[in-house]
Amino acid sequence: MIDRATIDKIMDATNIVDVVGEFVTLRKAGVNYKGLCPFHDDKTPSFMVSPSKQICKCFACGEGGTAINFLMKHEQITYPEALRWLAKKYNIEIQEKELTDEEKKEQSDRESMFIVNDWAMHYFQDVMKNEPDGLAIGKQYFRSRGIRDDIIEKFNLGYALNKRDALALAAKKAGYQAEYLEKTGLCIKGEKGLHDRYAGRVIFPWLNVSGRVVAFGGRLLDSRTKGVQQKYVNSPDSEIYHKERELYGLFQAKKAIAKEERVYMVEGYTDVIAMHQCGVENVVANSGTALSKHQIRLLRRFTQNITLLYDGDEAGIHAAMRGADMLLAEGMKVKVLLLPDGDDPDSFSRKHSAQELKNYIEQNQTDFIDFMARLTVEPVTDPVKRSEAIGGIIKSISVIPEEEKLLRSTYISQLSQRFGIKEQTLIDTMNNMIRQAEDEKEKERERARNGEAATATATEPTGPAPALNANLLAAVSSSDEVERLLIQSVIRDGEKVIYENVETDSGELINLTVAQYISYDLGQDNLTFHDPRYNQILEEAVAHSGEEGFKAETYFLKHPDVNISALAVELAIDRHQLGKGFQLKEREGSLKQHVLHLVLDLRLDIIEKRLKDIQKRLKEAGSNMELVTPLLEEYKDTQLIRDALARQLGNNLVK
Q: Mean pLDDT across the chain, nearest whole number?
């Protein structure tokens, strides 16, 4: 367990801009920072980070919270794990008791797999540093590739002994369970027990964006493979590793990517490592897998600019063309650089200085449309095939998101000038392609809706709807928007006094805070919020009102219940409007007037619902005067209440 004092120390040291900045490229926006949201497919920066409030919020998908909330959501970890992450970042020591065997067993599979992988990475490093075979084979291989010791350390490179169960035995001796050696893919279970997946290979650990070891790649160095393609073995997919969601080298590259505003995509481990050694650090590899949307969106958090950097042979050309439409569709600005024949990024980097490499890239990279034109159109003389090739380029332009209209227009203009085709002709062709794509998407959505409707029909209850309670004033909750605004006032200003020297029935003079006034007013008619979190927030704010130093916003932002703290973050930043029927004007005047109008608005909303219910019951009563007469009286009385409330609200309501 982590004690409260240590938690407070961690929270005091934490800077949310630093934490979020580990995963998202942030740029100054007034007093705050903004970037692309890591929790949804964000095309324009909608993720705001407030250093003064120490909270973050996405104004598109709604995700946000404190640094703790952010880490829990982003890294899929628990509250204690997030605290440990922050403690490690800020060098804060956590005193914890040694876990028993039973407690170790109770650790989640996910965390256990991370722990085993971290141990394995250090094991492979230790083998290469201290074992004779590690030095003679593993270390020698990296040195033969010209890789310096500091780069070996930077990428945590290692070596696996060429013995079928060396790692398995070492792990067992260290107290790690066979179950997790299997689940991570470090070992394979055979008839004779566990054997090592990477035996006799140099090891390339995969770190996720936060620096945790999720997988390994192993390259075989057996003399039998000389003269043929080297054989790689990679970790299988697991609970902590999905190859389509990870990029090799991203952890080591993310700061450079954000600084340079560009990422270079290469094919292999050694390409990444060689470019780092040459001084170009904003580089990642997808290592043999087809580029996925998950990988693109991961990169897009840091930059929209990507250069595909491959060797200039046929395989390199095909690699550059694969997934190009996917990159463009995700809003990436794509350039391509094919290296001279016979060179890949690894060999080219080793032949040139850092400045020479940077100069070559800058002078020779070309945008993807130019690349496609030179590759697919210009070599073709047949008019039909040539028009088809141009159509292929227009198709690529058509997938560029609506938000990037200027980029679309630039590419169309470029094609028009390059091939002497009227710009309007190209635009019409592109628009047709966009419409066809939208039609197809709509058909898919329609098919999905039909499927959902069929399911709903099959499961929908057939009995009559329950009768509405006549006492709606006490039973019906207000609209979500009004309640949300009220509880937002409690979070932001709950401790502030808005009524001074109020005389009670006993003649006592008291002060009422925002929270106390709202609680008192709603309590007159036994009204409560429909969301239990709102009720808890109001109750706690009232309980702490009057305490010296109590500040509602700080209290709820640091609330131990993550559901409450997450909601507090959301409401502390967010700006909400009322429903369609009523809309509160911009906050003017005193806090007292603001809160008063919100409470009146809530009551008015309830009364409006009550009137609608009476109208419904009048319709159901038909000509039955025994039912109609009292309902008309009730309707008249309710209207009088509604009118009185509306007059009280005055000009603050726009109807």
A: 81
